[in-house]
Amino acid sequence: MSVTAQSSSENRLLAQLSAEEFELLAPRLELVSFTVGEVLFRPEDNLRHVYFPTTSIVSLLTDLSDGTGMEVGLVGREGMVGISVVLGGSETKVATVQARGEALKLSSDRLREEFSRGGALQNALLRYTHALMTQISQSVVCNARHPIEGRLARWLLMYHDRLERDEFDLTHEFMSHMLGVRRSGISEAAAKLQEMGFISYQHGHVKILDRKGMEDFACECYPVVKDKYDTFLL
Amino acid sequence: MINTPLSNNDSTRKDADACLASTPAGARLVAEERPGRSRAHKFVKPGPFNGLLTNKLLTALPGEDFARLLPHLEPVSLGAGEAVYRLGEVIQDVYFPETAVVVSHLYFMEDGSMTAATIVGRDGLLGLSTVFDAPPPSYWTQVTTGGSALRVGRDVIKREFARGSAMQRLLLSYTGTRLAQLSQRAVCNGRHRLDERLSTWLLLIHDRAGEERLPLTHETMAHHLGARRAGVTDSCNVLRESGAINNHRGMIHILDRQRLEASACECYRALAPSVENPLRRK
């Protein structure tokens, strides 16, 4: 599928390129579709491509040896999946698609070439790397301190920010995996968010009803990371 | 003469050695007040430099790159409990921790509690966000165990980074290491028991401090782990009974690393390769 300036501007990192820079990159970008659960890479994989999500959302997970993983970062249209390609060193995460949709695919070699040029893309990627680091640092703190209801609210808000759609499908099992808590814990937390009128949640279908209320309820980590992303990436 | 025990590219250090040799007794490495450079951190004391370069990033620099940096390096000493950067402070200098220094990024919560995220020692540098042109950090950068560091102005580092040279590759690779450390700790905090987390954290500190005795009170440990003090006390008792550590008057004494490693969660093994510890006993 050919890539137009229109579709690439849906990714905020690519949107920061100048018209000339974009002209150079456009022929190398390929529009791809992801389905939920698709695994883009695993630890130690040699990444041949990176992905700039436009309408999809990708989860970065750290796996534990018992086979369970836990989400440490969420990447949507504000970012790029495969940052280890520019940082060097081996990949340590699992990247799995969390919301179906599209992304722009670019070869890792081409990205490195573009990055070493030191232009707008390098600048955008460095800023993004820092924002991602902020997001993950906040999870270190959040996971140690905050109760599950506040964390679930935060996570739903981050998801909603990237999706720009009020309804989506999420199973208990999936959320329990992402947040690293037992399924029963997720059920209770989701029931509480529902009771408070922030969401409706039935048969794995989530509908955001009161975003503002949920923002007030979510743990303090949500605005901290959101502010960083808003002020730093755009 | 610079001794680089961790360096694996000794042959490339000749330039740096020559540069040092040309300045009598490494005189340029003795910190002095430089006119026109005001220092925001009054607590940071100029420190003597013992000539042992142990910072992993500095020792990995090719000789030519290191020689360019050398005139800008100022030895300072950082004492336990001091803040390297305060909350919201604009970063003017970056620091390459040397032997014994361990620095943590502490996040303050609305309820007054705190939790540490990143741990930096001679495996990295402080002030990474300035390389990314990021706004002032929303965390407090505090010295956990004191020692020496080499300080350099942010503009010097940014200039080196912009050259696209070895410094750029090293800082990017260090950023990757830091992302990996943070990711592992995020999962660790979400999943593992406090005694496992405490063991992992002590090992990470010990690797960087390189000393058997660490000035850590139960309160400090509780703050860093984002746990309650009573929980930390219980976990310390378990570790002491197993003979892994001793703890007395605000000091943790690492007695048996192997036992401590056995008590740690898998996160320690996942993170250990990021720093070599000459003291690690097989």
Would you give an account of this structure?
The complex is a heterodimer of chains A (234) and B (282). With 234 residues, chain A is of the alpha+beta class. Helices cover 46% and strands 22% of the residues of chain A. Chain A has helices at 5-8, 19-25, 84-87, 108-116, 120-145, 148-163, 172-179, 183-195, 211-217, 221-233, and strands at residues 30-34, 39-41, 49-53, 57-63, 69-75, 94-99, 101-107, 167-169, 199-202, 205-208. In chain A, strands 2-6-4-5 form a four-stranded antiparallel beta sheet. Chain A is globular, with a radius of gyration of 18 Å. Chain B is an alpha+beta fold and 282 residues long. Helix content of chain B is 39%, strand content 18%. Chain B contains eleven helices and eleven strands. In chain B, the strands form three sheets. Chain B has a four-stranded antiparallel beta sheet. Chain B is globular, with a radius of gyration of 19 Å.
Q: Rg of chain A from C-alpha positions?
A: 18 Å
Q: What low-confidence regions of chain B span 5 or more consecutive residues with pLDDT below 50?
A: 1-42, 277-282
Amount of helix of chain B: 25-40%
Number of strands of chain B: 11
Mass-distribution shape of chain A: globular
Individual helix count of chain A: 10
Instruction: Please give the oligomerization state of what you see.
Output: heterodimer
- Gyration radius of chain B, to the nearest Å? 19 Å
Question: Main sheet of chain B: which strands, in order across?
Answer: 1-2-8-4
Average pLDDT value of chain A? 90
Number of helices of chain B: 11
Question: Which features would summarize this protein structure in a list?
Answer:
heterodimer; A: 234 residues; alpha+beta; three-stranded antiparallel β-sheet; 10 helices; 10 strands; B: 282 residues; four-stranded antiparallel β-sheet; 39% helix; 18% strand; globular
Give the structure's gist in a few sentences.
Chain A has helices spanning 5-8, 19-25, 84-87, 108-116, 120-145, 148-163, 172-179, 183-195, 211-217, 221-233, and strands spanning 30-34, 39-41, 49-53, 57-63, 69-75, 94-99, 101-107, 167-169, 199-202, 205-208. Chain A is of the alpha+beta class and 234 residues long.
